[in-house]
Amino acid sequence: MKYRIYIDETGNPDMKSSEDPNHRFLSLTGIIVNLDYVKNILNPELEKLKQDFFSSHPDDPIVFHRKEMVNYRNEFDVLKNDVIQKKFNSKLLEYLLNWKYVVISVCIDKLEHKNKYMTWLYDPYHYCMSILLERYIFFLEENNSKGDVMSESRGGKEDTRLKKSYHHLFETGTEYIGNERFHKSLTSSQLKVKGKENNISGLQIADLIAHPSRREILLENKLIKDERENIFGDEIIQILKTKYYQKNGKIAGYGKKLLP
């Protein structure tokens, strides 16, 4: 079997820090999915969901994007209707629960890192990516499988940064995993980068769960206050608790990891 991990980035990747949560915390969330499952189950069911609620057409497919959905932008303005929104949310939660995928989420507190270490050895994105890929390697080795990595395009210099970070890890390995293990488990030395217009189902699901996953890690570690109750993202969090990668029965440090 061949797997792919689809990665979504939430927060600001620069080396500066502030008290603003959107600038202070960077997270990378990846979903690991068998590629045959993507082709035969995940993609067809995601497209059916779009057709049922948004009249998506194959020639001009709707692409799920959390920020546009929660703000009812463009095609998602139909979700302003409470009845439609309730039905859609229920169906989406059903799919998120039933689909077969594994989640790894790595979050870095840039302010705490700066206070603790004073200087950066790696940029925050590279640091998170190294931890994420280590756990992906663990997963592939445990399943005697191989896989590759895909991230959503950020455009121009950002894409170059993503690709360089991945290639460096592939060639050098990390402090804990040598490059020979990267070469054995990963099928490509290059990061696959795709834009929203490519309508990649795995990237869309990663986008939908990335913010709730980061929220859970921050709440769990008391880094933010729970000022909102009964939000839809909290229902996604309950599902994610059944999807996080586990090693030796442990989620903490494997399916979820807070840095530094």
Description:
The protein is an alpha/beta fold and 260 residues long. The chain has one domain: Nucleotidyltransferase, domain 5 (2-Layer Sandwich). 48% of the residues lie in helices and 16% in strands. The chain is built from ten helices and six strands. It has a six-stranded mixed β-sheet, sandwiched between helices. Helix 2 runs antiparallel to helix 4 (82-98), helix 4 packs parallel to helix 10 and helix 9 (201-220) packs across helix 10. It is globular and about 50 Å long.
From the alpha carbons, calculate the radius of gyration and give it in angstroms.
Answer: 18 Å
Quote the distance from N terminus to C terminus: 34 Å
Secondary-structure content class: alpha/beta
Helical region count?
A: 10
Query: What is the approximate shape?
Result: globular
What order do the strands of the largest sheet run in, or round the barrel if closed? Answer: 5-4-1-2-3-6
Q: Mean pLDDT, nearest integer? A: 92
Key descriptive features of the protein:
260 residues; alpha/beta; Nucleotidyltransferase, domain 5; six-stranded mixed β-sheet; 48% helix
